[in-house]
Each structure stands twice: as structure tokens, then as C-alpha cells.
Amino acid sequence: MAKIKAAVIFGGTSREHDLSLASAAEVIQNIPRDKYEVICIGITRKGRWLYFPGDPADIAAGTWDQDPDCTSALISPDPLHRGIITIENGETSVKKIDVVFPILMGKRGGDGTIQGLLDLSGIPYVGSGVLASASCMDKSHTHMVMDDYDIKTAKWQLITQREINQLDERCAEIAEKLGFPMVVKPANSGSNAGTSFAENAQQLISAVKLAFSSDNKVVVEKYVKARKLEAAVYGYDSPVCSAVGEIKDPNRPYDPTNFNVSTGDDLIVPADIPKDIEKQIQSTAIKAFKALGCKGMARVDLFLTEDGEILLNKIGTMPGLRKNSVFPKLMEELGFSHDELIDVLIEQAVDNADRTY
């Protein structure tokens, strides 16, 4: 039986470039080689696409693009090619692809852009499509969808760049509606860059200006004193939720600007919560996954407040995929080893391609 040709795309121009490299290196090392032929495509920080035939260790080290055997490459949007076009010494060739695993976090990757290109190409890919990826990346859209589906989130307000000339007045309105303290975030960002904490009017104005340096929309949320919980959801028609974990590090003081970031080292699975609360959290995670149109996989961040209220924080459609990252650790609790998880994610994408194309 012929092996499935799986292309892994990594790197990218976003701030999450290094996170992508770390995840991609471990994914490539753990793809079952008896089943898959792996083709590696890297995107440099400046946006250049390269076919990389070298050692995954060079990806982890960040030196992959210095390999002399790298050649220019691109995914053809023409479904006739259904693959990757490489360019070497002016000569082009096509490498046919059966499925793509896009390991790209942040803007121009995890926000629906690469998914749109792959939809044009007709090549199946792992993870959510254009709309779900974009809606989960844009925190204002996530809030809007959650509001429509009666899924609770922190109280929030949106400021757009068109309002920047009335920033003082707009911030005063938000302060009256939400009250301090607040967490201020760029609407579109895969990391905590541009995120800050505001405890008074002047800090709020400064925080909004900082967030505008990363995006043209800013989300302001009422600060929530709560436990930070995590769930992994995977699947298509009948998505399944993992056990609930908790981000908890007694050796590191709480910092709201780092509240959305975890390498997995500070994840406790399962979380020490009552069984009925865990079921409610799992139900909320699946409901949000479906509401946003996600498929394949997602890391769902939630809050559990002191009075027992469950709030959705955000959904990551392209979570970190190192063995020690949050999503794989939660999936391990369901019985998936790292290589089994990677195999299942690729297999799902192939099996569900017919309904997309």
C-alpha cells in the first residue's frame, strides 16, 4: 500500500514563529513513517517559502533555512496540481500531496489565511477551516459568537481604529460600563504581545495604545479573578472533550498579561474540581467548538470564578503540539500517545476531505 504524502508547513511571519518550529520539529519526528511520507515546507520570518529536506533537529534549532539543499517552494492554488511546486535553478517540479498539516500559529497562518490557500488547492488539511480559524483568532468575533450562543465570557468592549481620535471619551465609556481592573488585548494575536493590565483611566488609555500597535482592533475585558482551566476538543461531527486540566504554578506569581500563555509545564491534569463542574466545562467547550465551526482540534481556555461561574476565555484552533504542550497532555489523558495523536489528526483530515471538496 502506498504511503500517504503528508506535507508539514511550519515557521511563518508571526510572533509565534519559534513556537511553530518547536511544535513542527516534534510532529515531524513522531509521524509514523510506516504510514506517511513526510514533506517539509518552511516559511521564513520574512515570508519566504522553502522546501526543506533536512533533519527535524535543525527546525527545532531554528537553523533549517540555512540548509544548502533548501529550494524555493509554493503550494499551487490550482487543484490540477494538488501539490507543492518546487523551483530550483529555474526548473519547476510538482510534488503531489495527499494532506497538509499546517503548524502555523498567529497571523498569516492560524487566522484562516493558509486555510484559504489550501481550500483553493483542493488539498485536505488538519484543523479548522477559514471561518472558524479567523473567528477564533479574532477575540471580538469569538465574544460575539459566544454572546449569540449564550456561552458566558468576561464582560467586554471593542475599540476600533476609527475611534482612536475619540480615545479618551471611548475609554471613559468603557470604564463606566466595565469598571476597573481590566485586561486589554489586541483583537488578533496568537500570543500575549500587546496585552496589558489597566487599573485606572490613564493605564487604560496607555494599554489601548499599546494594543493598537499589534492590531487595528482592541478588546477590553473586565478582569476576572478565577482559576484558569483547559480542555482539548477533537473530532468532526461528534467532537469529544478531554479531561479538564488547570494551569497552576505555585512558584510563579500571577500576571494577567501572561494569563493566556502556558508551555504545558504548569498544567495539572485532571484539575481538582467536582465531577459535575467538570462535566459542565466539557459541555461548554464542545458547545463553543461547534458554535464557532471548529473541526479537527482545538485548545479551549476557560475560567472558573470564585462563585462557580464558568466563562469561556478563548479557543485556539492551532494549539502547540510539542509532547509537553497543553493540548497533547490533555489528549494523553484520553489515552493518545504523541505519535497516535498526530496519526489521528492527519487521518481525520483525510477521512473528512470528501465533504469539503
From TrEMBL:
<feature type="active site">
    <location>
        <position position="191"/>
    </location>
</feature>
<dbReference type="InterPro" id="IPR011127">
    <property type="entry name" value="Dala_Dala_lig_N"/>
</dbReference>
<keyword id="KW-0961">Cell wall biogenesis/degradation</keyword>
<keyword id="KW-0963">Cytoplasm</keyword>
<dbReference type="InterPro" id="IPR016185">
    <property type="entry name" value="PreATP-grasp_dom_sf"/>
</dbReference>
<dbReference type="GO" id="GO:0008716">
    <property type="term" value="F:D-alanine-D-alanine ligase activity"/>
</dbReference>
<keyword id="KW-0067">ATP-binding</keyword>
<dbReference type="Pfam" id="PF01820">
    <property type="entry name" value="Dala_Dala_lig_N"/>
</dbReference>
<keyword id="KW-0573">Peptidoglycan synthesis</keyword>
<keyword id="KW-0464">Manganese</keyword>
<keyword id="KW-0547">Nucleotide-binding</keyword>
<dbReference type="InterPro" id="IPR005905">
    <property type="entry name" value="D_ala_D_ala"/>
</dbReference>
<comment type="function">
    <text>Cell wall formation.</text>
</comment>
<keyword id="KW-0479">Metal-binding</keyword>
<protein>
    <recommendedName>
        <fullName>D-alanine--D-alanine ligase</fullName>
        <ecNumber>6.3.2.4</ecNumber>
    </recommendedName>
</protein>
<dbReference type="GO" id="GO:0071555">
    <property type="term" value="P:cell wall organization"/>
</dbReference>
<dbReference type="InterPro" id="IPR013815">
    <property type="entry name" value="ATP_grasp_subdomain_1"/>
</dbReference>
<dbReference type="GO" id="GO:0009252">
    <property type="term" value="P:peptidoglycan biosynthetic process"/>
</dbReference>
<dbReference type="GO" id="GO:0005524">
    <property type="term" value="F:ATP binding"/>
</dbReference>
<keyword id="KW-0436">Ligase</keyword>
<feature type="binding site">
    <location>
        <position position="301"/>
    </location>
    <ligand>
        <name>Mg(2+)</name>
    </ligand>
</feature>
<dbReference type="GO" id="GO:0046872">
    <property type="term" value="F:metal ion binding"/>
</dbReference>
<feature type="domain" description="ATP-grasp">
    <location>
        <begin position="143"/>
        <end position="347"/>
    </location>
</feature>
<comment type="pathway">
    <text>Cell wall biogenesis; peptidoglycan biosynthesis.</text>
</comment>
<feature type="active site">
    <location>
        <position position="325"/>
    </location>
</feature>
<keyword id="KW-0460">Magnesium</keyword>
<dbReference type="Pfam" id="PF07478">
    <property type="entry name" value="Dala_Dala_lig_C"/>
</dbReference>
<dbReference type="InterPro" id="IPR011095">
    <property type="entry name" value="Dala_Dala_lig_C"/>
</dbReference>
<dbReference type="InterPro" id="IPR011761">
    <property type="entry name" value="ATP-grasp"/>
</dbReference>
<dbReference type="GO" id="GO:0008360">
    <property type="term" value="P:regulation of cell shape"/>
</dbReference>
<feature type="active site">
    <location>
        <position position="16"/>
    </location>
</feature>
<keyword id="KW-0133">Cell shape</keyword>
<dbReference type="GO" id="GO:0005829">
    <property type="term" value="C:cytosol"/>
</dbReference>
<comment type="similarity">
    <text>Belongs to the D-alanine--D-alanine ligase family.</text>
</comment>
